Amino acid sequence: MQGDERQQLILERARGQGSVGVRVLARELDVSSETIRRDLRVLESYGLLRRTHGGAYPVETRSFETSWETRTRRLVPEQRRIAAAAVGLIGPAETVFVDEGSTPELVAEALPGDRPLTVVTAALAVAHRLSRRENTTVILLGGQVRRSTRSVAGPWVEQMLSEFVIDLAFVGANGISWEHGLTTPEPAAAKIKAQVMKVSRRKVFCGVHTTFGAVGFCRFADVREFEAIITDTGLPLAQARPFAREGGRVLRV
Predict the structure, then answer these.
(1) In the chain, which stretches have pLDDT less than 50?
(2) Considering all CA atoms of the chain, what is the largest pairwise distance in Å, rounded to the nearest integer?
(3) Ramachandran angles phi, psi of 153, nearest 5°
(4) pTM score, two decimals?
(5) CB of 196 within 8 A of CB of 233?
(6) SS3 219
(7) Closest CA to 83 of 101, 67, 68
(8) Is 169 exposed, middle or buried, given 0-12, 13-18 or 19+ CB atoms closer than 10 A?
């Protein structure tokens, strides 16, 4: 198998499984671990994969977006810690926006149920999780359902959001970087997130460390707009400092 064929197979495997490991690939493809590491470096240079210790995971682009199922299986303990830290910042907020995505969905699960709370969301899973809570009023935004994220988007969603004033928004992203801000590969999703940023008094970013340094096709917010950025300890302290220097608090949990 030629190098380009092997790299294409590795990319397809990463996109299908959500991640790949060096040792497993070396064994299955009958090549050395160093060959696999070299392939991963090439794919990373093309902006298709991001390497981790012992493997890599796919980078989302305009033509490729990780499936909802893949995202909900990745780094779950880290996402739960982020969710717990996020709900600790609610304070007196009475209206909360919860974004689509696996981490915001766990934020929704962790929201307090012993006080009145209105939750606005475009995520079907979030609405389903909260629909039976007695003290929680759920407003599900209406629009076209995006199968890849199980959320809604479109002009109706933007119109509904424009009529609200939201106390606190928990926002996710496919990528966050100091240079390019918060990004996502899908223009329709970016428009919704940008509208949320406009109508929310307070904004908190919730995302695992693998989103840092990734850059998507559509930019929807600047890092400085957030009062807090919550991630896990997989983000090195040195990489977190630029975000904390001029932006909001950075919580590594």
Answers:
(1) none
(2) 61
(3) -150, 170
(4) 0.83
(5) no
(6) strand
(7) 101
(8) buried
